[in-house]
Amino acid sequence: MTLHMPPRSLGILHLERGLPPGATPPTPAPGSILSSATFDFPIISETVAGAWVENVVRGDPALEPAFIAAARRLVERGAVAISSTCGFSIRHQPAVATSVSVPVIMSSLLLLPALLRQLPPRAKIAVLTYDSTCCSEDLLGIEDRAERARIVIGGIEGGKFWHDELKRPAPPLDVAAIETDVAACIARLRSAHPEIATILFECAAFPIVAPAIRRIAKLPVYSITDLCRMTMASIA
Fold first, then answer.
1. What is the largest CA-CA distance in the chain?
2. Would you tell me which of 5, 90, 123, 202 could form a disulfide with 107, CB atoms 3.0–4.6 Å apart?
3. CATH of 108-223, one of 3.40.50.11030, 2.20.25.90, 3.40.50.1860, 3.20.20.10
4. Nearest CA to 91 among 111, 67, 75?
5. What percent of the chain has pLDDT above 70?
């Protein structure tokens, strides 16, 4: 008798979007962590109650129980790994990882130690974030001050996408606006830091413009979707 095992699913912790009850959410853009076309494995998601862009980005510790509860619901539904639609939720990484028995990868920032070791000592990594004013050093997971000096942080705060994400309901992603803001930020960072050799997208919305940014910058670009693929590939 042949046993048919259920497909391995990536569980994604989703922030509140403010859609009216019963409203159909917009179709995720190609390359989005929420698009089924982005991966060769299924995805499932759960909304983290009360987790909006503004309070997740600034770091509201009161959200931790809601992140844990949503992660547990995902595991109950068959998720074999847990990720998130906001890199700033890395603040809740330890608590969520402790609460479930599957790999937890809340943010692409988890890649930083490995990426630093890939590069020569004088090379730098540009971390592109939704809001650089909230991307504090404690989120980077790099304790060595010399290694920390190799990380350059740039954000798109004040741009169209930044403003759109604070609206309720949040509008569909403006891919062109994201590409414009991200490309401009990278250009500014590279002008000030020509040693930049790799780009890491903190924001989980940025992977939709990763192909374009690779062509423009001609540098390696890493994001949360890359970390998700690597994690899922490791699970039997």
1. 64
2. 90
3. 3.40.50.1860
4. 67
5. 97
